[in-house]
Design goal:
The chain is an alpha+beta fold. The chain contains 2 helices and 6 strands; from the N terminus they run βαβββββα.
């Protein structure tokens, strides 16, 4: 697995309702953990509370690799980083990591695209977003 220098992470609270019949965190719930990590990352990078009714970025692709099960007492953080920035989109990598052991539990790769909510079309990333994403990475 590649070594990535993550500058941002956020703790994840695991709830009993997150568990599957094997007493591991359900794979679908892990998608929610990554959503939360992405949201916290955006608020950190853009230095504002995100208004999701007007936010002009949208998730257009996601894939996950499940390396190790997550259990109820694991101390999990979600690390987030932008890997590549294009004209209309950027690629992110995230990891759910056991903070106590450093073991990577799950890796997520995603693509985020500029999005016009009125026309439902992709748009170029704003210059403001581009600058803030480049500074953070």
């Amino acid at each position: 697995m590649e070594t990535i220098n993550f500058k941002f992470s956020v703790p994840i609270q695991i709830k009993m309702s997150d568990l599957d019949p094997f007493n591991h965190v359900n794979n679908g719930i892990q998608c929610q953990y990554f959503d939360y990590g992405r949201s916290a990352y955006f608020e950190h990078v853009f230095q504002e509370n995100i208004d999701w009714s007007t936010f002009d970025l949208v998730l257009v692709h996601v894939d996950l690799d499940f390396h190790n099960g997550i259990e109820i007492h694991d101390k999990i953080v979600c690390r987030s980083k932008v890997l590549e920035i294009g004209h209309k989109s950027f690629k992110m990598v995230q990891q759910l990591v056991d903070e106590s052991t450093g073991i990577v539990k799950t890796t997520c790769h995603s693509v985020i695209c500029g999005f016009d909510r009125q026309t439902h079309q992709s748009i170029p990333l704003s210059e403001e977003y581009l600058q803030k994403l480049k500074i953070e990475n």
